[in-house]
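I have been asked to look over a protein record a colleague put together. This is what I was given:
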Amino acid sequence: HHDWLFKDEMKRYVSEGIITKLHTAFSRDDSNKSYVQDVMRQQGAAQRLVDITLKENGVVYICGDGNSMARDVQNAIAEILGKKADGSTDIDFGRTRIEQLKKEGRFLLDIWS
């Protein structure tokens, strides 16, 4: 994966326990395309996002293409953060949570088109 920036550092952080869970997505890989928003929606990753952002005051940092990737990732995060106890999703509630995180400086975007 030639686009995997800081690969060695990330793997080292995992081995040192600095990063406890590392999820990767490579959309340009011809054999096994995966997209960030799809990986985020997987149960373990989605629950981890909720725990880190809402319970542990974590920070979300989205870096990349602003045309579609950033939009799609933000929509996935809104779905995840808008999930209710009964299993239904209130995407507007999720978007409100994102706006609150932005106001707190815990949802950062570094995007370009």
In short: The longest helix spans residues 43-55. Residues 37 and 76 are 6 Å apart (CA to CA). The longest strand covers residues 60-65. Strands lie at 60-65, 107-112.
